[in-house]
Amino acid sequence: MIPTGHFGQAAACAIMAVLAFSSTGAAQAQRTAQAQAALGGEQPSLLGQFGDWGAYAAAAGGRKVCYALSKPASQQTNPPNRPRDPAYFMVSTRPAENVRDEVFIMIGYPFKPGSEASVEIGSAKYAMYTQNDGAWVKNAAEEPRMVDALRKGADAVVVGTSSRGTVSTDRYSLKGLTQALDRAAQECR
To answer: How far is CA 101 from CA 2, 51, 157, 178, in A?
Structure first.
């Protein structure tokens, strides 16, 4: 379960990262600033808690974002016990941009520049493009297959490398994800 007090700030950061990533260059910086201004302390609305996943809705700059979000069930770093900010796994829908089921991971530290992260679900492994502390599916054509695997799986393991060389392994329980995705999709039709 995600603590509601700390969640608002983390969700706002995740929303800003998702919105900012959909642009490039100067337009990206402008969109990030617009997203930050649009959120202006506004907290996302919890639509429902389903197992280890929450379904949420928020509006940023007049654009509605609905998403399922969870925090890791377990975390490991190598070297061990390295400090980092909270990590989150998010699957978002943004109707105004015709985006459905976009996978985003906020890892809790800046990724090593030029590195890839990975998500393993059962025997399937997906490469993730990294930027700052966020990761997105590298091959967008794989995203529907990945979301289907997430719906059917028991857990997802995220592996990434920080800018300082620390390797992290986060395990996310997928209990409740299907219901959270369905509720988010219902809100953002």
So the answer is: 20, 19, 18, 11
Which candidate, 153, 55, 138, 149, places its Cα nearest to that of 104?
138
The residues spanned by each domain of the chain are: 4-187
Amino acid at 135: A
Strand partners, 67: 56, 92
Q: Return the DSSP state at 124.
A: E
**Residue 28: predicted pLDDT:** 37
Q: d(Cα 146, Cα 178) in Å, to the nearest integer?
A: 13
Quick: pLDDT tens for 113-164: 999 999 999 999 999 999 999 999 999 999 999 999 999 999 999 999 999 9
Which residue, 155, 178, 163, 72, is CA-closest to 117? 163
The encoded tokens of residue 113 equal 């520049």
Q: How many CB atoms lie within 10 A of CB 13?
A: 18
Contact 117, 133 (CB under 8 A): no
Tokens encoding 22: 């959909």
Rounded mean pLDDT of the chain? 84
- In the 8-state DSSP scheme, what is residue 99? E
* Helical packing angle, 4-21 and 25-39, nearest 10°: 150
Which CATH fold topology does 4-187 show? Immunoglobulin-like (2.60.40)
Cα-only R_g, the chain? 15
Residues 164, 113: contact at Cβ < 8 Å?
A: no
